[in-house]
Write a structure and sequence with these properties.
Elements: E1 2-6, H1 10-22, E2 26-30, H2 33-42, E3 47-51, H3 59-68, E4 75-79, H4 84-92, E5 97-100, H5 105-120, E6 129-132, E7 135-138, E8 143-146, E9 149-151, H6 155-166, E10 171-172, H7 174-182, H8 192-204, E11 213-216, E12 220-223
Parallel strand pairs: 1-2, 1-3, 3-4, 4-5
Antiparallel strand pairs: 6-7, 7-8, 8-9, 10-12, 11-12
Helix pairs in contact: 2-3, 6-7, 6-8
Length: 225
């Protein structure tokens, strides 16, 4: 997942960033609330991790501004403020989850994964058809078309293409695809991702004579029709 981290403590910030990166996430770490706010409103993230107490603009201020501008990306608060009133204030401002310092990294990782899965579930108000270039994916009918022609995808290929389309233009690592499509938060040391990406390419690229999924050596894949 693409994660934004706002944390002004260098030791904690580095620890969280490095741990999430090892888990296959892409983490943008900010120590300034104002810089984090700009990034959150101009880039696509699956999860925002906000420290409650930051110098120029605190996490609560960032959250309130985001919700006021209808940015609904899931937010996890990290804070040393553990009083009930503080947690309630954050949740009422629009936070999705709350983790008090100190915390175990395994718990943080589990909460981030849960918020990421929540972000992928379309709500009733969201579009049920994804469209990128000439590719359309109907989430309700579970069918795919390209240039108006039907493309026959199995369940895993459909979910793989959905993951790509929801992250258009961004690198998706092998581990990120394993988590989103197969529900695995570990590397089973098999070629399941490579095999399914190859099959998907055979269906949405080869018949149409072009490339929409690029392999980024040593990083992952980018969907960019």
């Amino acid at each position: 997942m693409h994660v934004l981290l706002l944390e002004d403590d260098g030791e904690i910030g580095g620890w969280v960033r490095d741990g999430l990166t090892r888990s296959g996430h892409v983490v943008d770490w900010f120590t300034s609330g104002r810089e984090a706010l700009i990034a959150a409103t101009t880039s696509d993230y699956e999860v925002l991790i906000l420290d409650r107490m930051t110098p120029d603009l605190d996490g609560l201020g960032v959250l309130k501004t985001l919700r006021a501008t209808e940015v609904m990306t899931p937010v996890l608060f990290l804070t040393a403020l553990g009083e009930v009133e503080d947690r309630v204030e954050g949740l009422e401002a629009g936070a999705d989850d709350y983790l008090s310092k100190p915390f175990a990294f395994s718990e943080l990782e589990a909460r981030v994964a849960a918020l990421g899965r929540r972000a992928l579930r379309p709500s009733a108000a969201e579009a049920t058809v994804l469209s990128c270039g000439d590719i359309k994916l109907d989430l309700l009918k579970q069918n795919c078309t390209r240039r108006g022609e039907p493309v026959d995808l199995n369940t895993k290929e459909f979910r793989l293409l959905e993951a790509f389309m929801r992250s258009k233009g961004r690198v998706l690592t092998r581990n990120m695809l394993l988590e989103r499509v197969w529900g695995l938060n570990f590397d089973p040391t098999t070629s399941v991702v490579e095999t399914h990406v190859s099959r998907l390419r055979g269906k949405i690229e080869k018949p149409f004579g072009d490339t929409v999924i690029r392999t980024i050596r040593g990083a992952g894949y980018v969907f960019d029709p």
